[in-house]
Amino acid sequence: MEENKNIEIRIETPSFVYRDGMTTNREYVEWLSDVKARFRHSQIKASIRVNTSMLDFYWSVGRDLVVLRAEESWGAGVVKQFALDMRHAFPDATGFSHTNVKYMKQWYSFYFEQFTKSQQLVGQLGSTEISHQICDQISIFRKSQQVVGQLEMPEEFGVVPWGHHIQIFSRCKSLGEAIFYVNKVSTEGWSRSFLEHQVDSHFFETQGSAISNFDKTLPASQIESAKELLKKEYDLSFITIKEINKEKDLENALANNITQFLLELGKGFSYVGRQMELQMPGGQTFFPDLVFYHIPQHRYIVVELKAVKFIPEYAGKLNFYVTAADKLLRGETDNPSVGLLICKSTDKTIVEWSLQDIQKPLGVATYQLQEVVERTIVEIENRKENV
Questions:
Q1: How far is CA 85 from the centre of its chain?
Q2: In angstroms, rounded to a whole number, what is the distance separating the alpha carbons of residues 100 and 95?
Q3: Contact 105, 66 (CB under 8 A)
């Protein structure tokens, strides 16, 4: 015991702490890096556990309000009264505002109603782990004829922050759309602002629906993931040019608003360059409009812009640029490059025929601009009305 006291006295003696007699070698650096990684992982796991516990509780409250038919049993003001009672009982706790309790009920109600209405659930959700888990729950629910509302919260919901959940269930129109965004947030770590942007731009409806020849030009294991890179239509409403008549107008506008365009392209895109000069041995030069690199999929994306309707010649030129990207930019560990042609409008049959015998993976999409009315015209019209 005395020895312990002496040790404590020596430790508590005031002193500055310096590096002292320490040899920093490769082994120590590697060990330190490993410890740091384990600590960060433990922090993430701890935050996930806290988030999951809170969401489990929110789900259970929402389920109770539905199963007990609280408003029918205790009156329309039961949610407000419950919020007041919980805040009184737990004054230091957060999450018991009237609005938040309403969200708990809406959250559970949304999924339960969508579950019971879905007729082709498996086809709607695809083959993700979360879809299999929810499909299993629905199957059990229908077979056992459980009491209305007895659904468990899917495990993957626990890694999605509550604010994200509110954005999803309050703005999505279908179960498939909601699960799509839940899966994106849980697997790709979308921020709330990025999630809001993707919902606003109708990413679920347009993602993966561009016309392409990927089925014939990419390995089977890459087809679906590559399709997810492209949209059927790109929302370029951030461009304030009233009318775009030439490719250069569109290209200039996107280059000047590259951050917004990257957001519209989707997560994982990085900007490589614009009008990169491609020199050929015979002296000819070519200039692809925009080149991007998709980091998660390790592939280059060559983007060509056309302010007019699609014509077959465009596919041939883009095929040439994608070949150049594969031969000159693509590294040993990169996947095949992809071409994306964004036109003012398309004819599906013409596009499909044009891509029929193209050797490189290409996709064709359209764009939508915001209709801009010049302020001076509005002011003139207002003056006329006031005269």
A1: 38
A2: 6
A3: yes
All residue ranges of the chain with pLDDT < 50 are 1-3, 7, 9, 119-122, 125, 137, 140-149, 372-380, 384, 387
Following DSSP, what letter does each residue of 112-170 receive, concatenated?
HHHHHH-SSHHHHHTT-HHHHHHHHHHHHHHHHTPPTT--PPPGGGGGS-HHHHHHHHH
Token readout for 9 is 């006295």
**pLDDT digits over 94-151, tens only?**
889 999 999 999 999 998 888 777 644 445 545 555 555 556 545 544 443 344 446 7
CA–CA dist 55, 70 (Å, integer): 20
Cβ atoms of 279 and 285 within 8 Å: the answer is yes
6, 22, 24, 231 from 16: Cα distances, Å:
20, 16, 20, 60
Distance between CA 199 and CA 261 in Å, rounded?
Answer: 16
pLDDT of residue 130: 54
Instruction: Quote the pTM value.
Output: 0.58
Q: Are 254 and 248 in contact (CB under 8 A)?
A: no
Cα separation, 335 vs 217, whole angstroms: 12
* Helix (H/G/I), strand (E/B), else coil: 363: strand
The predicted pLDDT at position 241 comes to 65
- From first CA to last CA, the distance across the chain in angstroms is 98
Residue 228 CB neighbours (<10 A)? 13
- For the stretch 26-81, pLDDT in tens is 777 777 777 777 777 676 677 778 888 899 999 999 988 888 888 888 888 889 98
The Cβ of residue 363 has, within 10 Å, a number of other Cβ atoms equal to 26
Phi, psi of 338 (to 5 degrees): -130, 145
Q: Is 311 in contact with 344 (CB distance < 8 Å)?
A: no
Q: What residues form DSSP beta bridges with 304?
A: 341
